[in-house]
């Protein structure tokens, strides 16, 4: 249940929730690239936060939907999932 | 230098997504042939509801036309609007290269009667079925009246004046007038119109409260305005988007000028007060003629509102006579919407599109399903009527009491 979120899964969530097709390997290899470069808007990221919160049955930090890059988002989500009770 | 007053608004592009055609060409073919496509309601979840007959858009797959990232965050009404806007821009031969240097020169105006009911229903069902955590964030923008304007603007990169007109069904015409005001104020072009998607369960249930809705189950008899058998109106999906431009800007671009938006006026006479709509509509007609500098005798064809409610039909026939005098009894009146239904705000924009096409083709499309007119107006029935058409009057009323009229003119030879 608390396995870390991968770029692969993030790409699938972006596709399903926001209709954005992105190559997970590209996201991984360009850590500085922002969600906006991939065409994901703030509401799209907010939707992904909601899906993850429902999946794990726990809230993510309030600033989760303000992450600018996939790398930043994965770090925050996985840190929360690993350290949380 | 042209003065502000001289900035005239012309139509250079037409895009139609209607029950009788999802291209402007197929729409016009079925419209002038007088084909009725009214049929039993088949949209999922609507089959058992008391609304039996409507104008559905079938065979429209937005996946073929709109990028996925726009599809997931929009309702069907916005899918129609985006598709119609693409058609209108193609027709006008406007591409990004034309406005990339000045994206603020192009604006977007739509009118909306109800917003995104289907999207909204899905998310509200999640709210009550699973909880607020399961409502997607795009709900916040998808069911909103303004969604189509916003998405067309974002998708096309149009940064000029954007607006949404929420003034009832006649708002479709008010949107055209709003675009003309933007153009008078300095905007070069506006993508303008309306499309609606009222055939989804939640939306249909809302409409069942309208006493003027036809619940007749025979597609040939459900919507017959101006006859003794009039029993209400039939709703429809879809609408039309136009590209309107400042005349000199259109000419500089070498665009084909299809018509001039010469005059508009709107009045309000209250919900379901059809007798009073006589005066309101007559005043709107007179105001539109005045703005267009047009004498009543110059009107060559009237595209009627044609609600299909006896008191409303009578009021409209009298309003035409009040405003046009003796000419009102002679001028051909048509209501092609009897073959497709009323797409709320989309309906008068479809009529405006049909009016431009009628003027270009010298052909007044007929009023399907209507025979034995019981009012003193010359309704074109049966088949299309050839006629030299220079000026058209388009009328619209809304169930909540708005009345509006526009005057469209063929371009003069020097602009053609």
UniProtKB/TrEMBL annotation, chain A:
Identification of the protein by name: Acyl carrier protein
Domain Carrier as annotated: residue spans: 4-81
PROSITE patterns to which the protein is assigned, alphabetical: CARRIER
Domain of life: Bacteria
Pfam families recorded: PP-binding (PF00550)
InterPro entries per the UniProt record, alphabetical: ACP-like_sf, PP-bd_ACP
